[in-house]
Amino acid sequence: MNIEPLLKALSEALSGEGPAVQIAPDGSFTLIPATELGRPAGSETDVAAVVLTSGSTGTPKRTLLSVEALAASSVGTAMALQGEGQWLLALPMNYVAGLQVLVRSLFAGTRPWAMDLSGGFTPEAFTEAALELTDNTRFTSLVPTQLTRLLTNPSAETLTVLRRFNAILLGGGPINPALLEAARGAGLKVVTTYGMSETCGGAVYDGVPLDGVQLAIRDGRVWLGGPVVAAGYLDDAELTSASFSEEEHDGEMVRWYQSGDLGELDSEGRLRVLGRVDDVIISGGLKISAGAVTDGLHRVPGVREAFVVPVPSQEWGQQVAAMVVSSGTEAQLLASAAEVMEAQLLPKTVVFVSALPLLGNGKPDRAAILAALTEAAHAA
């Protein structure tokens, strides 16, 4: 894939010499003039990229990422990873995690290698692309489903290229602790990340905010602040006002983003994400966290992936339903889950699949999963 024209456009946007860039799913890109960003014609704009949110929980939004925000994120990542190097692009470029691979490379002065995703993500294609890297310091960014595929009966060559990465950033959704244990046990340097388009991607690594990023838990909800926070949403002033705010801190104004996630800080002050605010399942008057159910299912032997949602129930209002990738049966799953979870957390509907349906960015397709589980619950 020839990404040179895109890299040139991004470089000009980041240096303030060109308009903002928006990347399409096929890798093509559009230049967004200042007038479309609400600036006067012919004026300079601080916006370098317009990025679609994943849309995993609703309609995608066009997020405005400034030069300052992208630079702060790139510097913070380099500090957290203790250096800069060559990146392997294994995610779609139109989403923030893929874009950031290109941006970090431009700031580092290294050339990224783009994996060919036209045939989908496969261990063979990833291994072939990783072999093209020439720098001694290497990084890549993956979602949990990708790493799961890479570690399911991996070849010796795949393990070799994975071990050569100085860091593998892993984020974009809940991470099965068993996957993390298996990866690190195989000698992989995995760094978990938390963030979103509105924070230039990952802003918290292994539970710790990047340098310059502020983290707060307010009424159980995760807030992220600092220079990595986006300028807002294009053509949506109301949502921008509802999601972003500015507060004075030590004599300086700090920009904050209110996430849709619930979280807490552990005894060491590290962030633990508990699930989404809108993932609370109210069943028979009880409030059940979909994140807690997912965590419980991930502790069941044989479960590689699990996605939990509420489905309508005439008797209970809502009930817990789960789509699971597992080597066991439903009876084995529920029996083992009952040993690690309270009875009210056990899913009433379970659908087994060989792989979760995914969006283009590798995240689980919530709408497709919800439709399949609702159908299964009604058929029961």
Describe the protein.
This protein is an alpha+beta fold and 380 residues long. It has two domains: 4-203, Rossmann fold (3-Layer(aba) Sandwich); 277-379, 2-Layer Sandwich (GMP Synthetase, Chain A, domain 3), CATH 3.30.300.30. The protein is built from eleven helices and 22 strands. It has helices spanning 4-14, 67-80, 96-108, 123-130, 144-151, 156-163, 177-185, 237-243, 290-298, 330-340, 366-379; strands at 20-23, 29-32, 47-52, 62-66, 86-89, 113-114, 138-142, 167-170, 190-196, 201-205, 208-209, 214-218, 221-225, 232-233, 244-249, 252-265, 271-276, 280-283, 286-289, 303-313, 317-326, 349-352. Strands 6-5-7-8-9-10-11 form a seven-stranded mixed beta sheet, sandwiched between helices. Strands 12, 13, 15, 16 and 17 form a five-stranded antiparallel beta sheet that branches. β20 (303-313) and β21 (317-326) form a beta hairpin. α2 crosses α3 and α4 (123-130) crosses α6 (156-163). The protein starts with a helix and ends with a helix. 42% of the residues are buried. The mean pLDDT is 91.
Return the CATH class of the largest domain.
Alpha Beta
| Whole-number total of structural domains | 2
Number of strands: 22
> What is the CATH H-level superfamily of the largest domain?
ANL, N-terminal domain
Q: Indicate the percent of residues in helices.
A: 25-40%
Instruction: Round the Cα radius of gyration to an integer and report it.
Output: 21 Å
Largest sheet: 7 strands, mixed
The total count of helices amounts to 11
Tell me, briefly, the overall form.
Answer: globular
Q: Low-confidence parts lasting 5 or more residues at pLDDT below 50?
A: none
Task: Report the CATH topology name of the largest domain.
Answer: Rossmann fold
Distance linking N and C termini: 47 Å
- Output the strand order for the largest sheet: 6-5-7-8-9-10-11
